[in-house]
């Protein structure tokens, strides 16, 4: 066997593999013998089928299978031993000569190869991060949301602003009719018509004016799609059946327990501190996500390297056959290029810093996420074994894809943590309002 790599330019090469009969013959003969032991052919007892007959009937398929297996093994070994940095995998050349599997003894296979260049990480670039200051307005809004979310629904006789009014909505000169719930705070024009009404009252209004010509609001009220509501207009009648009102929850021990667990918080002061802490943690997490994106964008945008673009497009086409068209690849090629660059950066950081993720880290991370879903701060001793089994079962699902996804996420987190150590982060203090208005 002879494998050669001929570089055609800075980013492309041709890989040739020459096979002689001696390279594969023993593997084919061994597979024929194994097949003979298992084959069930009429007229022969199991395990007694002559090897010659098996070779005559199945020899070509066995030959093709063993040569393909040998090619995969030897090409992978060659790439690893010679430390060849490839984009994806070698792709068979379409111009390759037709193979005569019945008569050929020696074979030559040719592959197109995309080469990835050596590069240095642009770690001298600074990135912007944010320290979010939680103001009193944000705290007050959180309190209002909590009171509404955990409040009790009542059905008063007469409506007030902020109520939800349930009833029958009917088009005056049309066919539309449906039960619906009208939120009074979504009414833009003529809101006073919906205030002070009670069961049995009928309200007449222009639906497009009432909801400010907002197709999304119209879709919400009618249950129709935004496309359909674009043509919806005219007079409507709404017959009131019931008033729904949410009374704000009281800030008492019952609410404290619902939010943070039994007796975790027992005083108003502790509740205030916990709410502020929780909001701060949420904003810190969001700010960290923004910093991560800024690091990725900064490194990718400043990684000026030449890539095998034509090979990359062909590789995307081959590996996504039936899922990506040529037009889609062209349209999104900048995005695919950025993803490739980030993958190269990650691999370099992992290699240079010998970053690893252990199986224990994967399992523990999975269990932590499961606990968070059930709002469990820690695993009770009696559930420890069951939780471990649940995590293992989850990670094995989808042929281990869940394990790979968790592993890759943890590895990416370690890469970003290492990059934060090596790059200059310029932290800017910002209010919650300004942070929410940032365009990401």
TrEMBL record:
Question: Which is one GO molecular function term here?
Answer: protein folding chaperone
Superkingdom, natural source = Bacteria
Could you tell me which residue ranges the Trigger factor ribosome-binding bacterial domain spans? 1-146
Which Enzyme Commission numbers does its entry carry? 5.2.1.8
Q: Please name one Pfam family that this protein belongs to.
A: Trigger_N
A GO BP annotation: 'de novo' cotranslational protein folding
Q: Which InterPro entries match?
A: Trig_fac, Trigger_fac_C_sf, Trigger_fac_ribosome-bd_bac, Trigger_fac_ribosome-bd_sf, Trigger_fact/SurA_dom_sf
NCBIfam families in UniProt: tig
The identity of this protein, by name, is Trigger factor
- Gene source species: Pontibacter fetidus
Tell me the name of the encoding gene: tig
């Amino acid at each position: 066997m002879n494998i050669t790599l001929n570089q055609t330019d800075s980013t492309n090469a041709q890989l040739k593999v020459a096979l002689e009969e001696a390279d594969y013959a023993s593997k084919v003969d061994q597979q024929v013998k194994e097949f003979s032991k298992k084959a069930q052919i009429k007229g022969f007892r199991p395990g007694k089928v002559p090897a010659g007959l098996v070779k005559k009937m199945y020899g070509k398929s066995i030959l093709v299978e063993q040569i393909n297996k040998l090619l995969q093994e030897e090409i992978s070994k060659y790439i690893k031993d010679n430390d060849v940095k490839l984009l994806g995998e070698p792709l068979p050349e379409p111009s390759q000569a037709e193979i005569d599997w019945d008569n050929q003894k020696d074979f030559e296979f040719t592959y197109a190869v995309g080469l990835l260049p050596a590069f240095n990480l642009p770690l001298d670039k600074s990135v912007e991060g944010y320290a979010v200051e939680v103001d009193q307005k944000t705290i007050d809004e959180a309190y209002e949301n909590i009171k509404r979310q955990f409040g009790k629904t009542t059905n008063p006789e007469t409506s007030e602003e902020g109520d939800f009014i349930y009833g029958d909505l009917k088009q005056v000169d049309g066919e539309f009719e449906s039960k619906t719930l009208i939120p009074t705070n979504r009414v833009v024009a003529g809101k006073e018509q919906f205030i002070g009404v009670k069961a049995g009252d009928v309200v007449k209004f222009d639906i497009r004016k009432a909801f400010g010509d907002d197709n999304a609001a119209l879709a919400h009220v009618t249950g129709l799609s935004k496309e359909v509501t674009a043509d919806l207009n005219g007079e409507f009648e709404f017959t009131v059946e019931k008033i729904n009102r949410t009374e704000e929850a009281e800030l008492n021990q019952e609410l404290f327990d619902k939010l943070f667990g039994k007796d975790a918080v027992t005083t108003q002061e502790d509740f205030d501190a916990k709410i502020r802490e929780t909001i701060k943690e949420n904003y810190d997490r969001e700010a960290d996500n923004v910093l991560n994106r800024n690091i990725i964008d900064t490194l990718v945008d400043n990684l000026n390297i030449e890539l095998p673009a034509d090979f990359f497009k062909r590789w995307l086409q081959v590996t996504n056959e039936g899922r990506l068209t040529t037009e889609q690849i062209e349209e999104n090629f900048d995005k695919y290029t950025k993803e490739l660059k980030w993958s190269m950066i990650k691999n370099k950081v992992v290699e240079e810093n010998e970053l690893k993720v252990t199986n224990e880290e994967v399992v523990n991370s999975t269990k932590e996420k499961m606990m968070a879903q059930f709002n469990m701060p820690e695993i009770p001793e009696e559930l420890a074994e069951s939780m471990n089994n649940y995590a293992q079962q989850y990670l094995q699902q989808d042929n281990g894809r869940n394990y790979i996804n968790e592993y890759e996420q943890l590895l990416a987190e370690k890469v970003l943590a290492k990059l934060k150590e090596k790059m200059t982060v310029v932290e800017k203090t910002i209010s919650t309002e300004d942070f929410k208005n940032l365009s990401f």
